[in-house]
């Protein structure tokens, strides 16, 4: 009788219990595994990018610097007079005239002269590049590759240098930089902010504070949710038809002035910023609504209790206590805009411009678009500068988000002090 | 006394009206999208080279020779999305279950930011990852002869990683919204943690989870930069995920990125495809929202 119970033999129950426990453990391991996998994805993603930012490159000079002046191996060893004489002798007449026109050779700094000679005389070219991991593990393949190519040499490159940030666009990956794209991104974000922030916060205040629960307002709410999930490329098509084409006189600036260079045809910073403004508007509305929801009703009630109107309550009570959350939500929405590529490609961002954007009617390119173009090229070195540009973009996003968190904490602390 | 309060009431009406108009802008955007897509699509279908039936059933998309059948593009879009979902849903759901049912507060505090970082990375970065990591990985696993340099498998898998944080976060919310009493009742009946999760919690959260999956699918279908970089730049009707094939979004980006003249068939065709994309994703979003609203009513 000892080994049976009302449910059957105890050993059988025990076995059954064990099987259930084992099954539970098996699935738990699966869940943990999936979670580890998600973390692994993040590590691989960031790792594969950082890997391409550093590594060996085999460079071949069209002209060996040691052949320019006898007894000097490196450009750094040249004296000022030697630099000037090499530049005047070796630069073609056309380039010399243009360079002289910008700033006479004799007035240029040594550093400037060296980069001129490098650009027009030595003309270094990256034959092949390696990622960081490969550089560490397979150094011998790098060396043997160099030996196969006469006159080439190995350098360990850090692709994300200060020069990379401030340099112009260029078709040569060794000289290309992201200044124009970075400025383009910042301009676009500014327009997006100015357009979407007031409208988004206003709409959210209406929906959260004023709107009664009727059909129209329910439709508004559903529609905003829907808009937030519309693929970004659709916003690009909207921007193309509305801002670039229909509103061209306004977005190209030709309505306001006829001096403006009109090659941009409406494919301007203004169009790009407005397009992204429409894109982030539903996100800002939803985030602001969340911020307003978090304000306790007792605050509103006590404000009404002392005779304040609805608007006075919102302006003097609700907004001040929720502004930190509203700003955080807005910055999150702007980070989204900063990383957007597809809509801007669709409205026709420039593929190659060397002039910095001068205002809202300028042509533009942005950091993500620059990354897109470099990634799409098959040659090795473009991959490295694409990775460097990605790191620059991620750092920019990180800075924005840190500023958001810092401001939020600061406002929160101030509020505590006042209270 | 009365005059002051009337003045206050009037000044209170002005901001309300302005903000109501701001809220209406959202409707204007939706209507604007619909009107523009329909108008340009109308121009597209009015072109003598195009007809609606051929568009919906044609197996070739070659604008150069006036072939406008969108099945190859739709097929590639569905291939990448299905691959993305078959990675994103099981992994995302598992992460959600782990986070809400198993993880300690400390593990959650570490994992939540990881998901947030993954969700905050721009899609173009995922595109780069597909091209420089996933594709070489697939090629070394299955052979260079089998896997083309551009292929829908790589793009699909990376889109799966891209929607994973979204699925995990939303699914965790759905699971977390299931009342604790249900779990306790299941434990009281002798259920193990797994049995409680699978037989009580998940069924109770099913509508919230379906809403999540539909929204993720909509996101995968509309995803652009990953497919533009990794899936291939030419329409191709193929069932092989290791072949290159261009998706709807990939085509729109490639055509609009080049120099297309306005009012050409090419130009109008991207709006027609945009309309298809908009209808698909809008429907998915709408169903998702309906389901999730019902779910919230159940437990609130």
List keywords for this structure.
heterodimer; A: 419 residues; mainly alpha; MetI-like fold; 3 domains; three-stranded antiparallel sheet; two-stranded antiparallel sheet; extended; B: 300 residues; two-stranded antiparallel ribbon; 2 strands; globular
Helix-strand layout with pairing:
The complex is a heterodimer of chains A (419) and B (300).
Chain A (H helix, E strand, L loop, with lengths): L3 E2 L2 E2 H44 E8 L18 H11 L2 H10 L7 H13 L1 E6 L2 H6 L1 H10 L3 E7 L3 H5 L12 H32 L4 H14 L3 H15 L1 H4 L17 H25 L3 H9 L4 H30 L2 H6 L19 H10 L3 H39 L1
Antiparallel strand pairs in A: 1-2, 3-4, 3-5
Helix pairs in contact in A: 1-17, 2-4, 8-12, 8-14, 8-16, 9-12, 10-12, 12-14, 13-14, 14-17, 16-17
Chain B lengths: L1 H45 L5 H6 L3 E2 L4 E2 L2 H32 L2 H16 L2 H20 L9 H25 L3 H9 L4 H12 L1 H17 L2 H6 L17 H10 L7 H35 L1
Antiparallel strand pairs in B: 1-2
Helix pairs in contact in B: 1-12, 3-6, 3-9, 4-6, 5-6, 6-9, 7-8, 9-12, 11-12
Description:
The complex is a heterodimer of chains A (419) and B (300). By secondary structure, chain A is mainly alpha-helical. Chain A has three domains: 4-51; 56-159, no CATH class; 179-418, MetI-like (MetI-like fold), CATH 1.10.3720. Chain A contains 17 helices and five strands. In chain A, the strands form two sheets. Chain A has a three-stranded antiparallel beta sheet with strand order 4-3-5. Chain A is extended and about 95 Å long. Chain B has 300 residues and is an all-alpha fold. Chain B has two domains: 2-46; 56-299, MetI-like fold (Orthogonal Bundle). Chain B is built from twelve helices and two strands, in the order H-H-E-E-H-H-H-H-H-H-H-H-H-H. Chain B has a two-stranded antiparallel ribbon. In chain B, strand 1 (61-62) and strand 2 form a beta hairpin. In chain B, helix 4 (105-120) crosses helix 6 (152-176) and helix 6 runs antiparallel to helix 9 (206-222). Chains A and B meet through helix 1, helix 8, helix 9, helix 10 and helix 12 of A and helix 1, helix 3, helix 4, helix 5 and helix 6 of B.
């Amino acid at each position: 009788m000892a080994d049976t119970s009302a449910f059957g033999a105890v050993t059988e129950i025990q076995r059954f219990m064990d099987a259930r426990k084992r099954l539970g453990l098996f699935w738990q391991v699966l869940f943990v595994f999936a979670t580890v996998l998600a973390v692994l994805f993040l590590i691989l993603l960031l790792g594969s990018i950082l890997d391409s930012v550093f590594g060996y490159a085999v460079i071949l000079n069209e002209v060996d610097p040691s052949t320019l002046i006898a007894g000097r191996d490196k450009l750094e060893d040249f004296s000022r007079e030697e630099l000037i004489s090499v530049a005047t002798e070796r630069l073609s007449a056309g380039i010399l005239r243009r360079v002289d026109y910008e700033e006479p050779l004799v007035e240029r700094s040594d550093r400037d002269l060296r980069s001129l000679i490098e650009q027009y005389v030595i003309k270094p070219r990256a034959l092949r590049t390696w990622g960081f991991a490969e550089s560490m593990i397979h150094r011998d393949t790098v060396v043997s590759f160099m030996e196969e190519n006469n006159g080439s040499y190995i350098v360990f490159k850090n692709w994300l240098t200060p020069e990379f940030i401030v340099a112009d666009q260029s078709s040569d990956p060794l000289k290309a930089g992201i200044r124009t794209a970075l400025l383009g991104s910042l301009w676009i974000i500014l327009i997006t902010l100015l357009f979407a922030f007031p409208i988004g916060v206003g709409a959210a205040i209406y929906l959260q504070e004023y709107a009664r629960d009727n059909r129209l307002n329910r439709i508004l709410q559903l529609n905003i949710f829907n808009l937030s999930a519309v693929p970004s490329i659709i916003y690009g098509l909207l921007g193309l038809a509305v801002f670039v084409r229909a509103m061209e006189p306004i977005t190209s600036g030709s309505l306001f002035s006829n001096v403006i260079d009109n090659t941009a045809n409406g494919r301007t910073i203004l169009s790009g910023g407005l397009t992204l403004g429409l894109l982030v508007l539903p996100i800002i509305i939803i985030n602001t609504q969340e911020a307003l929801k978090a304000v306790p009703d007792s605050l509103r009630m006590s404000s009404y209790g002392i005779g304040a109107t609805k608007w006075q309550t919102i302006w003097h009570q609700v907004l001040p206590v929720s502004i930190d959350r509203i700003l955080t939500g807005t910055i999150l929405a702007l980070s989204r805009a900063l990383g957007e590529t597809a809509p801007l490609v669709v409205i026709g961002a420039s593929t190659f411009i060397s002039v910095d954007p001068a205002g809202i009617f300028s042509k533009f390119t942005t950091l993500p678009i620059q990354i897109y173009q470099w990634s799409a090229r098959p040659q090795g070195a473009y991959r490295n500068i694409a990775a460097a540009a990605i790191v620059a973009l991620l750092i920019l996003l990180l800075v924005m988000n840190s500023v958001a968190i810092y401001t939020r904490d600061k406002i929160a602390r101030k509020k505590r002090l006042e209270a | 006394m009365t005059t002051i309060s009337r003045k206050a009431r009037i000044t209170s009406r002005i901001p309300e009206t302005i903000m109501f108009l701001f809220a209406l802008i959202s409707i204007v955007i939706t209507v604007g999208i619909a009107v523009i897509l329909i108008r340009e699509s109308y121009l597209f279908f009015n072109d003598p080279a195009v007809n609606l039936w051929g568009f919906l059933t044609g197996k070739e998309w070659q604008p150069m020779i006036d072939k406008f059948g969108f099945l190859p593009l739709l097929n590639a879009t569905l291939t990448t999305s299905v691959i993305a979902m078959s990675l994103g849903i099981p992994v995302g759901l598992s992460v959600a279950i782990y986070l809400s049912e198993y993880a300690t507060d400390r593990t959650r505090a570490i994992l939540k930011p990881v998901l947030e970082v993954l969700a905050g990375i721009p899609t173009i970065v995922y595109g780069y990852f597909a091209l420089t990591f996933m594709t070489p990985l697939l090629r070394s696993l299955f052979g260079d002869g089998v896997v083309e340099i551009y292929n829908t498998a790589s793009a699909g898998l990376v889109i799966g990683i891209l929607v994973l944080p979204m699925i995990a976060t939303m699914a965790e919310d759905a699971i977390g919204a299931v009342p604790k009493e249900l779990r306790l009742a299941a434990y009281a009946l002798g259920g193990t943690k797994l049995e409680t999760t699978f037989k009580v919690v998940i069924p109770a959260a099913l509508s919230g989870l379906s809403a999540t999956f539909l929204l993720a699918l909509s996101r995968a279908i509309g995803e652009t930069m990953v497919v533009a970089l990794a899936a291939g730049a030419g329409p191709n009707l193929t069932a092989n995920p290791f072949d290159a094939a261009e998706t709807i979004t990939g085509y729109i980006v490639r055509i609009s990125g080049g120099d297309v003249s306005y009012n050409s068939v090419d130009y109008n065709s991207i709006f027609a495809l945009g309309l298809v994309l908009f209808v698909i994703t809008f429907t998915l979003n709408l169903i998702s929202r309906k389901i999730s609203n019902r779910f919230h009513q159940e437990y609130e």
